What we know:
The chain is mainly α and 211 residues long. The protein has helices at 19-27, 31-50, 64-76, 86-114, 136-149, 151-163, 167-174, 178-210; strands at 124-126, 133-135.
Amino acid sequence: MDSTEPKHEPTGEGLPADATELLNLAQSGDDQASERLLGMVYEQLRATAGSYFRAQAANHTLQPTALVHEAYLKIVGGTGGEWESRGHFCAVASIAMRQILRDHARAKQAAKRGGGSSREPLTLVESPSGTNAVDLIALNDLLDALAETDERGARVVEMRYFGGMKHEQIAEVLDVSLRTVERTSRRCLAWMQAEMSEARTYGANRESGAT
């Protein structure tokens, strides 16, 4: 972290004090604790999940409620038992959401190859600005490539796209300055947009050449 930069201010957005205790109990198999914990985090997960469906066709296979429950089960079934803030929870949720959405998008490719169901899996995710939609598999592949050279940058983009997190929340989770997150986000998103644009141009050129 650049020590000359001012540190971000805390967002003050916390989870209930007993959320981490409930998480530990839920991970040990306590069904009542799991039910109470879901009640605490449901609205946050539902709000995040809802943003994925604005760019989808009406016949997609995954519904917001199902995505919320899949994500919750993945979070509770994961390792670790402490959420330091709402931002930290959103960061954990962003990983779960990305994995679930990626797998559903890949299911579309498999269905196409095998002549599967006419109902479509989710294949797009809105950009953080909400101005355009991005192919999920392409986004996932670019994040994997980015993580090889810039792990922090990949996490920033992941939390922006899949966690719906603001720069201030990301700065708090990563323990870096807000300015660092803003610069990282601009740089990485610009790189990803350029890569996607190049891929679209290459695809269009191949298609026109084939005809």
